[in-house]
């Protein structure tokens, strides 16, 4: 992975009607990575994205796209950006191809050959000469992405890209986004309030809550940090008593005990149990769901 950032957001704030909605958000996207912007409804994802794409201006802070400052080098910055913020604007009575031709006409720097390239990229070759009114929602989304890719951007921004898609459509979109990042070296910023989706699609994630980014890390690191150990032991109450002297213990619903994963101390805990006459029948590690993790890092704010 190259380390020249494709998108840099630094200390971004936004005040709306004297209220601070975005409170100093920073994050960086590198080429070829899918970056998740995760937070519950109202956390500030859309407002942040609207500033990045230049629809509203920040109160303070800096945004650079492909190294170009959105405030001072707007046109150059936008040249590196493709985005679909709300639904893609498409003409239903034109074919997919005619839609692309229409948008390509608005930008003289797009060569005719690029149309076929983006159609292939989004996998719409077989249906591109059909009217958009006959397309499924997933196909419309992909045509929208094809349009966003016409100018060969470095960064693609997708606000809740799987909204409204059925499970098969969601899976297809997820794989498609990963493929774009890999094959085109495109950085993709995906906003979502769906944890499972971010987990499966993104390399890294920023967790946003009440206008602030509270954590940024790889999905893997975030999960590993909260790894738990599940204990099956008899008698359970004695095992609980002994473990509680060492660490925080929760009782599982199925007669198990749950502690956080603490590798260097695990054999010691196990030995203490055995010495006290507890039979340790099973000891296994488990990754938390991203949902548990979210509750943990936000200190209890849930996500739908
Ligand atoms: N124009 C506005 N006037 C007043 N408040 C606003 C305005 N725009 C956004 N907000 C408030 O800012 C907060 C963040 O909204 P935003 O839409 O960015 O959140 P979000 O994370 O994208 O959630 P959603 O997924 O629901 O869009 C919300 O509390 C919202 O009510």
TrEMBL record:
Residues 7-235 form the ABC transporter domain. It comes from the Bacteria. The keyword ATP-binding applies. Keywords: ATP-binding, Nucleotide-binding, Transport. Gene3D superfamilies: P-loop containing nucleotide triphosphate hydrolases. Pfam families: ABC_tran (PF00005). InterPro entries: AAA+_ATPase (IPR003593), ABC_transporter-like_ATP-bd (IPR003439), ABC_transporter-like_CS (IPR017871), P-loop_NTPase (IPR027417). GO terms for molecular function: ATP binding; ATP hydrolysis activity. Belongs to the ABC transporter superfamily. This is ABC transporter ATP-binding protein.
